[in-house]
Structures are given as C-alpha cells and as structure tokens.
Design goal:
C8orf32 fold; about 200 residues; two-stranded parallel sheet
Length: about 200
C-alpha cells in the first residue's frame, strides 16, 4: 500500500478522522531545526516523532488518503513571516483543515467553511510573526500530493524539496489589497500571549 509497511498502514488507518490526525500531530515535538532544514516524508515523521508545518501536513495528507480522502494541501503565503501549510478536507461539502504550528491558533479547523477562502480567512487574526505583525497575505488552491507519487512522497528517505518548491511557485490568490495590509494594527498583547502559548523557542 503506497510502499508503506504494515505497521505504518495500521497507524495511519487508526488516524481515521481529522481530529484524530490533529491529536497525533499535537503529540509530536515541533521541528525547529535551523541548520540543514528537513522536509520529512510521513514515514520519517512517524519514525522521528517530530514535524514542522509542512511535514505535519504531509503526514496528515497520508492519513487522509488511507481513510479515503484525497491528499490535499493549501499553502498560506505570508509577508515577513514563514509560510504555513494546511492539510485540507471536506465533509458534506464544507471545508476544514489539520495543521501543526508553533502558534496555537494555526492548527485545526472543523468542517464548517463553505469555501477555501472562508477557511483561510479563519486563520487571519491568529497569523502573526514574533513582532506581533499580522502577516497572512495569500493562499493557494487545494493541491493534491498524488502528483508526487512518482517520488514516493509517503515513504521517501530523501527530503521532499520538490513538494516545497511546487507549493512555493503555485499560484496564490491575494487576500487583501496592499494599501490595507500596510495599515493593519499589531496583535494586542493578550492575543499575542495566547498565540505563542507553548511555542518552542525560535
């Protein structure tokens, strides 16, 4: 099954709902490696028990695939901040997402959003950098990891840089005009403290 071992298949099949996938990701150590950054496959995430946002999204997409959902990602593009990757899903025509992040507000969303844009906008207030600037600016359409089956994205030992490069160059739809973005207020102190609660040191 996609080159996975029996134990890997068993684990991913146990992650049979988006909330179970999110709980699994929340139990991992957040990957804060700086030198020699990694882009682990789901196999390596399972083995190493660590993931940053892209690695967590790949793991979630693999679990979705084994439960019969398409392995879809949405890339969120930021200004003066890291981009963020979501594994997205639909239930009864409504969108939700699973994600891992240093910031507490950039993780799970239940399937209550009529469009991908609605889903993405639910991240706007919680998407800020260490200086407290609101930084979310654009998003991609849902993109299927199935196109990378040729490099065995679910089990590869090599870093998945081709996937990251693909997410980077994909068309992104702007969320707000530049004139509005330049006048956004910083996040208030209380929201900032809530957002970075439990965050690893950067």
């Amino acid at each position: 099954m996609y080159g996975l071992t029996r134990s890997e298949v068993g684990l991913l099949r146990r992650l049979s709902t988006p909330d179970k996938v999110q709980r699994y990701l929340d139990a991992l150590t957040y990957n804060v490696e700086k030198d020699g950054d990694t882009v682990r496959s789901p196999r390596r995430v399972i083995r190493d028990r660590t993931a940053h946002c892209a690695e967590g999204a790949f793991l979630a997409a693999a679990a979705f695939r084994l439960s019969g959902r398409p392995p879809l990602l949405v890339d969120l593009e930021a200004d003066n901040d890291d981009d963020h990757v979501l594994a997205v899903y639909r239930d009864r025509g409504l969108w939700g997402s699973v994600a891992t992040s240093k910031f507490s507000g950039l993780r799970f969303r239940g399937p209550v959003y009529r469009t991908v844009r609605e889903l993405v906008m639910s991240y706007f207030e919680d998407y800020f950098n260490w200086d407290g600037d609101r930084t979310l600016r654009a998003y991609s359409r849902p993109l299927s990891l199935a196109r990378f089956d040729r490099i065995n994205w679910m089990t590869a030992e090599d870093d998945l840089w081709p996937v990251v490069e693909w997410l980077t160059v994909a068309h992104h739809t702007p969320l707000l005009p530049r004139t509005v973005a330049s006048r956004l207020p910083r996040v208030d102190r209380r929201s900032y403290r809530a957002g970075v609660l439990g965050a690893p040191k950067h």
